[in-house]
Amino acid sequence: MTSSISSLTGAALINYYQGQAALTLFGASTSSAASTSAAALSAYYLNKEGITSSGSSSAAAANAPTAPWNTSTGTPSVSTAVQNAMNGASFVSPSASSLSAPGGSNATDYENLFAVYQGLNTLNDLAQTAAANANSASPTYSTSQLQSVFASGLSQVESFLNTTPFTGFNVTAGQVSQSQSSTVSLPTGVGHNYSTGVIYTGDASSPAPALEGDVQFTISVASTYAPTGTAPTNVNIDLSGMGSTPRTMTNVVGYINRQLAAAGVSSTFAVANLGNATVNSYVDGKATTTTGSPQWGLTINGAAGEQISFSAPSTAAAVYVGETTGGIKSTSATGTSTTSATAQTLIGLQTSNSAVGTPPSTSSVSVNNSSLPNGGIFSSGLPSGVNSVQSEAMGSDGSIYMVADVSGSVNGAPVPGDQGVALMKYDAAGKLVYSKVLSAGSDSSGYSLAVNTDGTVAVVGSNTVAASTSVNGVTTAASTAGFVQVYSPTGVPTWSAKIPASGGTATATGVTFGSDGSVYVSGTTTGSVGGQATQGSSDEFIQGYSPTGASTFTTQYGAVDGTNTSSGIVYDTANNTLYTAGSENSQAVVRSFALNGANSPTAGATRNLGAATSVVGIGLSGGQIVVGGNTIGPTIHAGTVAQAYQGVQDAFVASISTSLTPSSSDSVTYLGGAGETETARAMSTAGGQAYLTGTILNDPNGLAASNATEGFVGGVNVSGGGQSYANTFTAANGQSTPTAIAASATGTSVLNQLGLPDGQINAGGSTLITANTPIKAGDSFYIRTAAGGPQTTITVSAKDTLASLATKINTALGAAGAAQVVSIGSSSTISITPNTGQYIELDATPANAGLASVTNNSTNVLASLGLNAGVIRTVQTVNGLTNPTQLREYGLNLGSLNISSATSAKAASVALQTAIAHIQQAYKDLVSPPTLASEAAAKASSGTAPAYLTAEIANYQAGLNRLLAGSSSSTSTLG
Question: I need a surface site. Which of 45, 608, 771, 832 has the fewest CB within 10 A?
Fold first, then answer.
């Protein structure tokens, strides 16, 4: 075998094992014998190919210390490393490195490299332990304990690397790249185009059914250049003006455009080809997809300076339901159990008679992915990352606002921790206007929201801070606090407040606005909120805030020595009173509080409605207080029983006087059926109606799949009681679980047939960074323009857009490079490119931050923008080869790792083993620095390995797999 072939095969073999070892060895336990055998086998392979070392000279090798991954005593066992970490041992300790050789002038670099390796190795051991917990009936440490220590250790490694502890080369916790562009897109603030969904399926030359009949609506066009107060141009569209012309999509669009042009409007309509429909069918349990007819929609090409709104002369009531579909557990003939994937959907339903369309009856219909429940207006799939819709509210412009628990990322915006909260706004046609991941910290839950008449939005929920152990072993207990965050009509954060509880937890579950813009929050606590006296094992509380966020009062209450849970709050303008509903010792209880300005409110009347399994909401309609919930038996005492109790468990709507004293107007309506378990999850009121949504189990109509539930919406007349509307539905995989509902008295019109919203299109889009990301005003990231050089702090202000942020970055970069905003359509991103030979480093945390990395109370600005911490620089070349005198960069790509679930722990372990491989490469290059000659040899050896060698490698790998079965990847990774 020639020298060149030897070099080729050796390089191929090393690269193969370097890349494969992490995956092959993942999840195995320590075995020193296997480790030794692996080292011997690796040496055998290398010798067989004529390679005796990594290319270092004998003098350099003699001076270089042995790496800890090449010794049987250099790395503790997994159990020992984990135990040491859980006891508070430092993850990174250069002074603990005992070099087997002097190391020469590079001794400090060797010590620091080995210290980083030990830190990464311990993190990997924690990740493997967390992954193994999923299969352990009695794990030594809980996953939350492991995650807490893992987060501390990751912070230590990142902070240590942030001090640039190496000379002649650099190791960054982030990535190394030649340029960066953010993965999170922000609105550009220009462009007014709008596209509908499918409104017609069929031959383009045929009339579209949605365009037939009495189709009338108004297009209002406001000029953004006109003086304030200038009335918009109203263009009335009545398709009867087309006469006998067939109402095809093309003909109708032409007619609309002629009306717009005659009115002096520059914006136009166009027909959109939305591709062919697909039809899903199931035969013998096997899915078959066939291609159907072409689908058509509308596109509005909004001209610059023209803002377009729609309205219709006749409207009808509607509800909007957020539901989870799928998630059915089934068992195959072989005994294998699987659970189908879940999806989140927003559906719109017409609920009352009007001149618009045909309202749904009380019949039930089955739905799949491509159809709607009876009376359906639209069905919109929610963004990936949404786990559960928690609450909905209507805006005065007909928009639907939703708060949801989310994970991963939502529309490219990263979610902090395992779970976060997102605020989403949809227009009346079911089109997403914006989504925003809130800056509520990691591991947060959203519970409720309210929308004021001016479009201001308030969101409440809770944030859990996991127990943590510091480097000196001090443990901080876990805590859960409520939060309230308030946003402008365009989604810009205006103020926020934390709601802690002394001696327990606090969760904010309800919120409402006062007539002056004040915010009132209700919730549940197991401790004391605001220094208030406790009543039972858990209490209810209310808090008041001024329009600018100043705390005005706190009141804590509930049944003495009881279990109390808050279920909502509502404000009555007529008597300046707050009403709350909750469960007190399993009784549905309504309370009133008369407001006294900034002083604590005066507790008023209390009404016990009787035994209830849960209370799901409170509303105000037609001068009556409305309470919804669930009960086992006819136990609700609220005057006239307008509809009797029927099932195993029924939902109920109670309508009572605002005085909270018995009145002839009081009524209770039970919703349920014989043998059914009906469980309401949410309630909304509008137009004198109260609407409940939830699930039905054991419906004799049999809509749901086995082990599944179907969804329902029930309407009740607030005045006098009695059911006014009923609809049941299932969805994908025969499962629907509604979790939230919002109601509108004017939610549907002929516009729904055309896929157009009621009100302004593309309303509410802000270009501010704080309006589109979790970033808060005052959050920062850091830039270096030299390795080990000083950091320049970049702080995001409340008025920053991507353009103004790019200006700040360019000031910090100077001659090192440039940041620019790249716009594509209505979205924009930011890119950073270095100048030739220049160095740029992005850091999420300040140097020497210690354990203050990205904490639970701060925001990782880089991650929130879709940028990566790390080094950005161009690669210098000499005659087409990498310049060996250039500072060597090693990116560990640690990112935002966590081990809070088995899946994330496995992913973290793979990432950590890859990072360890980079540390091992840095060690090799330190022992024998690359030269132009070695670079040329490496480049020359990058061809395709011969077939015989490929087969040989496969045999070697199979042998290695058998040899290392049961060995630890963290102690046996090949160097």
Answer: 608
Scan for tokens 């992913």, then name that residue. Answer: 907
- Read off the pLDDT of residues 609-661 as tens digits, 9 standing for 90 and up: 999 999 999 999 999 999 999 999 999 999 999 999 998 999 999 999 999 99
Share of the chain above pLDDT 70, in %: 80
**Mind listing the pLDDT tens digit for each residue in 431-488?**
888 899 987 666 899 999 999 999 999 999 999 876 655 545 556 667 889 999 999 9
Q: pLDDT tens digits, residue range 555-599? A: 999 999 999 999 999 999 999 999 999 999 999 999 999 999 888
| Pair 487, 364 in one domain | yes
pLDDT at 940: 60
Contacts with 408 (C-beta within 8 Å, 6 or more apart), sequence order:
384, 385, 414, 415
The DSSP annotation for 24-42 comes to HHTTPPP-HHHHHHHHHHH
Within this chain, do residues 280 and 422 fall inside the same structural domain, yes or no?
Answer: no
Cβ contact 98:75 at 8 Å? no
Domain-embedded: residue 723: yes
CA dihedral over 392, 395, 398, 401, signed as positive or negative? negative
In-domain check, residue 474: no
496-504: list long-range contacts, CB under 8 Å, 24+ apart: 496/439, 496/549, 497/545, 497/549, 497/551, 498/463, 499/523, 499/529, 499/543, 500/529, 501/525, 501/526, 501/527, 501/528, 501/529, 502/527, 502/528, 502/529, 502/531, 503/527, 503/528, 503/534, 504/528
Q: 878 near 862, Cβ under 8 Å?
A: no
3-state secondary structure of 148: helix
pLDDT confidence of residue 932: 64
**Domain CATH for 431:** 2.120.10.30
Q: Do 711 and 837 lie in a common domain?
A: no
- Same domain for 136 and 240? no
CA end-to-end distance (rounded Å), the chain: 24
CA 327 to the chain's CA centroid: 19
Last residue of a domain, one of 820, 854, 870: 870
* 62 and 151 fall within a common domain: yes
Mode of pairing for the β-strands spanning 888-891 and 169-172: parallel
- Tell me, yes or no, whether 757 lies in a domain: no
C-alpha dihedral sign at 945, 946, 950, 956: negative
Same-domain pairing of 520 and 659: yes
Strand partners, 188: none
> Using one digit for the tens of pLDDT, what is the confidence trace for 676-706?
999 999 999 999 999 999 999 988 877 777 7
Q: Which domain holds residue 789?
A: 179-188+768-870
pLDDT at 15: 43
Q: Report whether pLDDT(46) > 80.
A: no
Nearest to 895, CA basis, from 918, 917, 915? 915
Q: Decide if 762 is inside a domain.
A: no
Number of domains observed in the structure of the chain: 4
Closest CA to 617 of 692, 525, 727: 692
Q: Kindly tell me the sign of the dihedral angle through the C-alpha atoms of 529, 533, 539, 543.
A: negative
Are 118 and 203 in a shared domain? no
Tokens of 313: 């002369």
Burial class (CB in 10 A: 0-12, 13-18, 19+), 144: middle
